[in-house]
Specification:
- The protein has 145 residues and is of the alpha/beta class.
- It is built from 3 helices and 7 strands, in the order H-E-E-E-H-E-E-E-H-E.
- The chain has a single domain, classed as Nucleoside Triphosphate Pyrophosphohydrolase, CATH 3.90.79.
- A hairpin with a 5-residue loop joins strand 4 and strand 5.
- The protein starts with a helix and ends with a strand.
């Protein structure tokens, strides 16, 4: 059992990957909720290293540039007795070239127009407006529930 499992705490690194005027989002097959591509960061794992490793494994591309842009903290009920806390660290990731995306098991990847972010069902909900605002002013953000 990992320490994060014991504490009911997830630390996740998420990537904002933009190609022209489109943002890469993903979702579980059949779900109407989208989210930024992201990966759990293990205890004592370096965040940027985890991000680079997972981008390379999932998209067969090396990160050209990485920039921290914000974070969200959300909590939700797992069952009657357990609550889970998610802490997402969000980075702008620039790749050297366009990436071809495809399904990855139960996950679908989709390019969405940046100017339509507010129209998407993006989880966590608090991220949607913060992300849309970031595309306008490029200012760091923090949001929590």
């Amino acid at each position: 059992m990992l320490l994060n499992d014991f504490l009911n705490f997830n630390k996740t690194v998420r990537a904002v990957i933009v190609d022209g005027s489109h943002l890469l989002l993903c979702r579980e097959k059949g779900s109407r909720w989208h989210f930024l591509p992201g990966w759990r960061v293990d205890y004592r794992e370096k965040i940027e290293k985890a991000l680079a490793k997972n981008v390379e494994q999932n998209f067969m591309a090396k990160i050209e540039h990485i920039k921290y842009i914000g974070a969200t903290s959300t909590s939700y009920q797992i069952d009657r007795y357990k609550t889970r806390q998610d802490f997402d660290l969000i980075y702008l990731v620039r790749l050297p070239e366009h990436i071809d995306i495809s399904e990855n098991g139960e996950i679908e990847f989709v390019w969405h127009p940046v100017d339509e972010i507010r129209k998407q069902n993006i989880a966590p909900r608090i991220l949607k407006d913060k992300l849309a605002k970031w595309f306008q002013d490029q200012e760091f953000f923090w949001a929590s529930t």
